[in-house]
């Protein structure tokens, strides 16, 4: 959680360097009205803070800091290093990145620097140090926010040289690298580390080689971490009691976020759902963020108070939608409710992006009223759920190396194109989400034995030791489920010889001979042999069809047609005291709902409270309280929750409640259990 935080931070990005003193004064009035207690700045002010190399102007920021302190507003202070000043790019062009097409970029965009540039790092460290010296002990400082939304990949000569060094450190010898990359294929044997190139579009051989790409992404993750640490180490030195973080953009694929977040005090992310996104998909990303933070609370750092300006159709947030999204975030583990941005800018790239204070400039707007309502409600909750974790018995495995490797494989049609790992895993998550079953998203390094059920769909890459840890989990009574496209490669992205799914095959009691790929218009069938607990006799399946042979596993279902008709498609294997399931295809949603539902029922795992209708239900538990969040998404009908005999305090109305409680249409209830959290 955020160190020293005593309340939920409600606020967001503020750019007062764009406004005169009178406007700032008026903003203080408006912030109080909306119960805004937190601002993030000066994210983009490097050019203003350092107008020339080594010449700093902090006067305006000093004044603002004092204003915030006087107004009881906490500051998430950003190092402004996401957007270097023009003089820096001009004087030291090496700081500018080279893109995948090999184009040297010119100054302009933000996050438009080479993370490996020594000059960039030197100047970023210098301004971070100036800020740390000045503000590390400032009473208004709540946390440090380093740069903003890292993620630019660079292909410049510095990166190329560093990539070679990184590979030398990783592989030790060229022989080892040649072996692991299997360079003998297509005659790509390397005789010197200097022959290694970056996977740009100038070099199709490297661009398309999955081994090179995989290592390049790992290298870029490490380079970005080093770039973050370049500043974080300085900030830490001046006051180790201040939380240091940065924000993860919604586009999370580029960098291995499990690795990144290990270097931060808390995970933080920017929640910009598409208007068409299902609420379960947003919940899934929240759960992923909590997972990155090892189950601890995280920050929703940004969301738009109203429409975004970069969607193809920038739909307004509907009345009540922002409030629902805000509660969804805190219900899933966020300790902040934070917006981009507080005041809408007068011009520039994001002048039409939603803001708490719109171009109208006053409080008489729908958005301002909704933000004020959220602010007032959160204030009433104080520290009720702060730092609260979410107890769960089901874990879903998620892994970036696996994601990358799978999608490179899919690009070469193993077995078919357009494989979207994020979306495919979300289907498994959605089943639990719809049943309000608590779950954690966990890394491949997690302690599986903490859970009763571990779902690891599409576990393509089994890194050293992983299969053995899964075996231990199952032997001790755990239930494990994996799917087609699992156990196929090792951490070097080399096929595991000796039958798919490689190291998982004994545990699963099967082996897979071939994987068929179906074009979108072709389907097959999952015909149930063991229909107990399933709602249908047969289900549709698509995309991938594994041709499976059992070796000890029980066949739960077989294929309905094609040359592998009657061969197994879903299996179950007893292993030690536990059970391992294999789903050899891409089933329709109803099948997933049934099989996961059945597994949970067998394990006695259910929603913690009974609800009716379309309610999202979560619990958070901290040292003081257990809190239950119930979000009724139905815009027309009320829903009910059964709270049992225990007395709860409903935190929005302040009522003491128990038993059956009615939640109005499109409304939220937050129940705090009085007494001990257990
Ligand atoms: C990102 C950035 C913000 C802003 C928003 C707009 O998340 O961090 O600075 O540009 O997008 O949606
Ligand atoms: Zn570079």
- Tell me the CATH topology of the largest domain: TIM Barrel
Oligomer: single chain
Could you tell me how far the N terminus lies from the C terminus, measured between alpha carbons in angstroms? 20 Å
Tally of separate helices: 18
- CA radius of gyration is 26 Å
3D architecture notes:
The strands form five sheets. Strands 9, 10, 11, 12, 13, 14, 15, 16, 17, 18 and 19 form an eleven-stranded mixed beta sheet that branches. Strands 5-4-3-2-1-8 form a six-stranded parallel beta sheet. A five-stranded antiparallel beta sheet has the order 21-22-27-24-25, with helices on one face. 48% of the residues are buried. It folds into four domains: 9-153 and 218-381, Glycosidases (TIM Barrel); 157-213, no CATH class; 394-602, Rossmann fold (3-Layer(aba) Sandwich); 615-673, Immunoglobulin-like, CATH 2.60.40. The protein is globular, with a radius of gyration of 26 Å. The protein has 678 residues and is α/β, with parallel strands linked by helices. The mean pLDDT is 96. The longest helix is centred in the N-terminal third of the chain and has 29 residues, at 210-238. The chain starts with 8 loop residues before the first strand and ends in a 5-residue tail after the last strand. It contains 18 helices and 27 strands. It binds alpha-D-galactopyranose and zinc ion. The site of zinc ion has 7 residues, from helix 6.
Tell me the layout of helices and strands:
Elements: E1 9-13, H1 21-33, E2 38-41, H2 46-49, H3 59-70, E3 74-79, H4 86-91, H5 118-135, E4 141-146, H6 157-171, H7 174-181, H8 204-207, H9 210-238, E5 243-245, H10 257-261, E6 268-270, H11 279-292, E7 299-302, H12 321-332, E8 336-339, H13 366-381, E9 394-397, H14 400-411, H15 421-434, E10 439-442, E11 453-456, H16 466-475, E12 479-483, H17 505-508, E13 510-517, E14 524-528, E15 538-550, E16 554-559, E17 568-575, E18 578-583, E19 585-587, H18 589-602, E20 610-611, E21 615-621, E22 626-632, E23 639-642, E24 648-650, E25 656-657, E26 660-663, E27 668-673
Parallel strand pairs: 1-2, 1-8, 2-3, 3-4, 4-5, 6-7, 9-10, 9-11, 11-12, 12-18
Antiparallel strand pairs: 13-15, 14-15, 14-16, 15-19, 16-17, 17-18, 20-23, 21-22, 22-27, 23-26, 24-25, 24-27
Helix pairs in contact: 5-9, 9-14, 11-15, 15-18
The structure holds alpha-D-galactopyranose and zinc ion.
């Amino acid at each position: 959680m955020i160190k020293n935080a005593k309340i939920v931070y409600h606020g967001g990005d503020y750019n007062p360097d764009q406004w005169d003193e009178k406007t700032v004064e008026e903003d203080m009035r408006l912030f109080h009205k909306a119960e805004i207690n937190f601002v993030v700045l000066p994210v983009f002010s490097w050019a203003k803070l350092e107008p020339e190399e080594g010449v700093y102007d902090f006067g305006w920021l000093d004044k603002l800091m004092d204003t915030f302190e006087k107004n009881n507003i906490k500051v998430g202070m950003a190092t402004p290093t996401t957007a270097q000043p023009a003089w820096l790019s001009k004087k030291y062009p090496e700081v500018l990145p080279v893109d995948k097409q090999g184009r040297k970029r010119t100054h302009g965009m933000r996050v438009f620097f080479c993370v490996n540039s020594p000059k960039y790092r030197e100047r970023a460290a210098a301004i971070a140090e100036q800020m740390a010296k000045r503000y590390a002990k400032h009473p208004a400082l709540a946390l440090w926010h380093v740069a903003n939304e890292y993620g630019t990949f660079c292909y410049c000569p510095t990166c190329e040289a560093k990539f070679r060094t990184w590979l030398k450190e990783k592989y030790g010898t060229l022989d080892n690298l040649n072996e692991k990359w299997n360079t003998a294929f297509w005659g790509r044997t390397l005789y010197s580390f200097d022959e290694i190139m970056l996977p740009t579009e100038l070099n199709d051989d490297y661009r398309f080689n999955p081994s090179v790409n995989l290592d390049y992404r790992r290298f870029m993750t490490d380079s970005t971490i080093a770039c973050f640490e370049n500043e974080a180490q300085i900030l830490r030195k001046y006051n180790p009691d201040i939380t240091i973080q940065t924000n993860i953009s919604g586009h999370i694929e580029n960098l291995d976020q499990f690795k990144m977040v290990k270097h931060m005090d808390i995970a933080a992310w920017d929640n910009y759902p598409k208007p068409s996104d299902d609420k379960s998909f947003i919940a899934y990303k929240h759960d992923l963020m909590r997972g990155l933070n090892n189950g601890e609370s995280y920050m929703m750092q940004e969301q738009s108070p109203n429409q975004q300006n970069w969607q193809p159709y920038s739909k307004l947030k509907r009345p009540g939608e922002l409030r629902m999204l805000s509660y969804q975030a805190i219900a899933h583990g966020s300790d902040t409710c934070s917006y981009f941005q507080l005041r809408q800018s007068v011009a520039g790239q994001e002048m039409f992006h939603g803001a708490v204070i719109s171009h109208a400039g006053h409080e008489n707007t729908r958005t301002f009223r909704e933000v004020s309502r959220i602010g007032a409600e959160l204030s009433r909750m104080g520290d009720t759920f702060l730092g609260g974790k979410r107890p769960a018995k089901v874990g879903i495995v998620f892994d970036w190396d696996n994601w990358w490797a799978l999608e490179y494989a899919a690009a070469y049609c193993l077995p078919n194109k357009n494989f979207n790992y994020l979306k495919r895993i979300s289907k498994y998550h959605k089943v639990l989400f719809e049943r309000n079953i608590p779950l954690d998203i966990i890394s491949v390094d997690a302690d599986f034995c903490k859970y009763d059920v571990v779902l690891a769909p599409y576990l393509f890459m089994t890194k050293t030791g992983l299969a053995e840890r899964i075996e231990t989990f199952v032997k001790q009574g755990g239930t494990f489920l994996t799917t087609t496209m699992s156990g196929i490669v090792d951490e070097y992205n080399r096929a595991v010889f000796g039958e798919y799914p490689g190291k998982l095959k004994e545990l699963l009691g099967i082996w897979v001979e071939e994987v068929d790929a179906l074009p979108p218009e072709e389907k097959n069938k999952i015909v149930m042999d063991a229909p107990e607990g399933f709602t249908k006799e047969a289900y549709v399946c698509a995309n991938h069809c594994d041709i499976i042979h059992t070796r000890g596993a029980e066949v739960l279902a077989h294929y309905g047609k094609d040359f592998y008709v009657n061969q197994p498609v879903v299996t179950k294997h007893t292993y030690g005291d536990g059970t391992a399931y294999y789903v050899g295809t891409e089933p329709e949603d109803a099948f997933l709902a049934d099989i996961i539902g059945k597994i949970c029922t067998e394990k006695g795992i259910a929603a913690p409270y009974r609800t009716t209708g379309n309610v999202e239900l979560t619990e958070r538990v901290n040292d003081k309280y257990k809190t239950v969040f119930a979000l009724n998404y139905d815009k027309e009908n009320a829903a009910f929750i059964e709270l049992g005999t225990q007395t709860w305090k409903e935190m929005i109305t302040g009522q003491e409640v128990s038993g059956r409680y009615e939640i109005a249409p499109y409304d939220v209830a937050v129940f705090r259990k009085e007494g001990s959290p257990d």
